[in-house]
Amino acid sequence: MNIASVREVVSAEEWQLRQDLAACYRLVALYGWSDLVFTHISARVPGPEHHFLINPYGLMFDEITASSLVKVDGQCNKVIDSPFPVNPAGFVIHSAVHEARDDIQCVMHTHTRAGVAVSAQKCGVLPISQQSTFVLASLGYHDYEGVAFRDDEKPRLQASLGNATHLMLRNHGLLTVGKTIADAFLHMYRFESACQIQISAQAGGELIHYDAQIYAGSDSAASYIRAGGTGGAFVWPALLRKLDRLDTGYRS
Fold it and tell me: Is CATH 3.40.225.10 the right assignment for the domain spanning 7-251?
């Protein structure tokens, strides 16, 4: 697919953001978290305009490139012309989070089998794995209201997320936020892993639940694991090297 480069019409900072966001889409496809052309990852563009980047609706995640990402404003108007539309349901969810959370740059949303399965369980995420400690330390729940294309759902979605890092959309899927794209990806990796482990564990014998005090102290444990930096910053270079060994096309 021949898509004109926008590298010369955006700032160096935005171009780097576009490359990282395109990489994130490719990684989601690589790890099997995509849902055909559905679900979204968005990133706030630095500056006072409140613009953000989102995927071109109709492209598979392993087709997305830095230049194909669509730049929109808070009303879903394209800031840079693009031949691709934006999914209204995706825009409602992501714009709601960006409006409410100035502290985050990236919002990720998935419809994975394990994520949707746990979102349909009354118990939600169970304290049964090390991965779940990081999720339970900062987790909200939002009840299902149907396909999210109505603006009137935004305040309720914002309230459900609050200041959390992870949001379980009941009967729907998973959502994470991050101060960087890399952080949001790492949060989703742990969220998805916790759900996969839970579904697998439930197929066996009686489960062992750990004490809530353990996940209450997970922030200090995470700081130790990531060697003083943010988790995303620590793992992101290795993930980019993994992608580059397979295909560097996302960078264009």
Answer: yes
